[in-house]
């Protein structure tokens, strides 16, 4: 089993979308996908209703997901840890115990060399359009990630 963790700040907007999108592109008998937030604000919460709606419009159900906080043992559980922005990156890297841990952490948009700004914008204070933009950025990166994982 190859395991992949998606990480944002609250684990209610961006990482639940990344989690649902990547899961939809990988066979579940070989890959395990999960998500977490660096903060504890939304532990136990459902994803934001706008993330649920944008996923649903694209045929993906994320409504059963529940927020949880990133923990140091996630470095042991997961092979790949994709973070949404530089702030998430710094917060996760601070918890790394060694270079083996830190080598697992990447900005999710780094998988596409054509994208200049490597931060997935936080849509929490935005509109549904911002969530649609986040969805398209994540769908593009998850296409590349799933191809790389399946071919490796
Ligand atoms: P996320 O968005 O990190 O994409 O889940 C946020 C959700 C909640 C908050 C911030 C960002 N918050 O401050 O509660």
From TrEMBL:
Gene3D superfamilies: 3.40.50.2300. It comes from the Bacteria. It is an enzyme of class 3 (hydrolase). Residues 2-152 form the Phosphotyrosine protein phosphatase I domain. It comes from Gaetbulibacter jejuensis. Keywords: Hydrolase, Protein phosphatase. This is protein-tyrosine-phosphatase. Pfam families: LMWPc. SUPFAM superfamilies: Phosphotyrosine protein phosphatases I. Transmembrane segments: none annotated. Belongs to the low molecular weight phosphotyrosine protein phosphatase family. The lineage of its organism: Bacteria, Pseudomonadati, Bacteroidota, Flavobacteriia, Flavobacteriales. Its EC number is 3.1.3.48.
